[in-house]
Design a protein that fits this description.
Elements (H helix, E strand, L loop, with lengths): L5 H7 L16 H12 L1 E6 L7 H12 L6 E4 L4 E5 L3 H9 L3 E3 L2 E6 L14 E9 L8 H11 L1 E6 L1 E2 L2 E2 L4 E8 L7 E4 L8 E8 L38 E2 L13 E3 L11 E3 L13
Parallel strand pairs: 12-13
Antiparallel strand pairs: 1-3, 1-5, 2-3, 4-5, 6-10, 6-12, 7-10, 8-9, 11-12, 14-15
Length: 289
């Protein structure tokens, strides 16, 4: 018999009108409370890569990198998806707020289970990033304009590095929830009036794991890009490059910036050590509009 995962099995079932059904609101209060408590201490993780990540590898990452107060249970689902069982809501909140996370340089998308916690209906496409906007004109260096520009990137959360309502220097630093199923935005255009010349604002991402430099989407390498055409003649110019990554200008965030962060190596189990690489001067790189 062909092996089917849970989603495939549900898709071929005929849901008859007379099928047995359990209505949660009709259950005893203690049963419902137990279920809600379990949801409140759970997360569902999906590792965005075509490579298979085993439960053992992910468990080592959770243990050595997250360093929660109590052990986190890791249960394997399917297709690089895992249920995470936390001993406390405090640990869960800390992991959510300190993202984004990556294992072996692959992005981990975390979902907070809602309702019944049906993971088959989760999209795993929303990840919170710290984003830096470079070359912002003076007009845009305010908290209010930061919110406007952040909403152009995704779901705006907050402006960082603020003093008395104004931003420091010519760089805005924001936290934004990004739809990682779409290409990352490389730049924004800011224009005072419709007939005025636009200012180009460069968008750079902190703690950004591997992404496809052809399409700008996380989750697959360049050579597996579905939108990349076979090479004919000269190699086409890639729209993305290392310039889209940036370290935290105020120092690495808890030792996990893109250029100085903790992650398990691909050659063996994670030992939680810092892996540092040289930060290339972004001014030496150019990008194509």
């Amino acid at each position: 018999m062909t092996n089917l995962n849970y989603s495939e099995i549900c898709s071929v079932l005929a849901l008859e009108d007379d099928a047995e059904e359990v209505v949660i609101s009709n259950l005893q209060s203690d049963l419902r409370t137990a279920g809600e408590k379990k949801l409140a201490c759970s997360l569902v993780a999906c590792i965005l890569t075509t490579k298979v990540i085993t439960r053992e590898s992910f468990s080592l990452f959770v243990q050595n990198v997250w360093r929660t107060r109590a052990a986190v249970g890791v249960e394997s689902l399917e297709d690089n998806k895992f249920i995470l069982r936390f001993a406390s809501e405090v640990d869960r909140r800390r992991i959510i707020s300190n993202g984004p996370w990556s294992i072996e340089n692959y992005l981990i998308a975390l979902e907070i289970p809602q309702g019944l916690g049906d993971y088959t209906k989760m999209k795993f496409n929303r990840v919170s990033f710290c984003v830096q906007l470079h070359n912002v004109p003076i007009f845009g260096m305010t908290r209010e304009m930061g919110a406007v520009l952040g909403s152009m990137l995704g779901e705006f959360e907050e402006v960082l590095d603020i003093q008395s309502g104004e931003c420091i220097g010519k760089t805005l630093r924001l936290r934004v929830i990004i739809d990682v199923s779409k290409p990352l935005k490389r730049f924004l255009k800011l224009r005072l009036d419709a007939d005025k010349e636009a200012s180009i604002i460069l968008v750079r991402y902190e703690r950004l794991p591997d992404l496809c430099y052809a399409c700008g989407i996380l989750g697959h390498p360049l050579h597996e890009c579905p939108s990349r055409k076979p090479l004919q003649g000269d190699q086409p110019t890639l729209l993305f490059g290392d310039w889209i990554r940036v370290s935290n200008s105020n120092g690495p965030e808890q030792g996990r910036s893109r250029r100085s962060r903790v992650h398990p190596t691909s050659s063996g189990p994670s030992d939680g050590r810092l892996v540092r690489t040289r930060l290339v001067d972004p001014n030496r790189h150019c990008f194509n509009l």
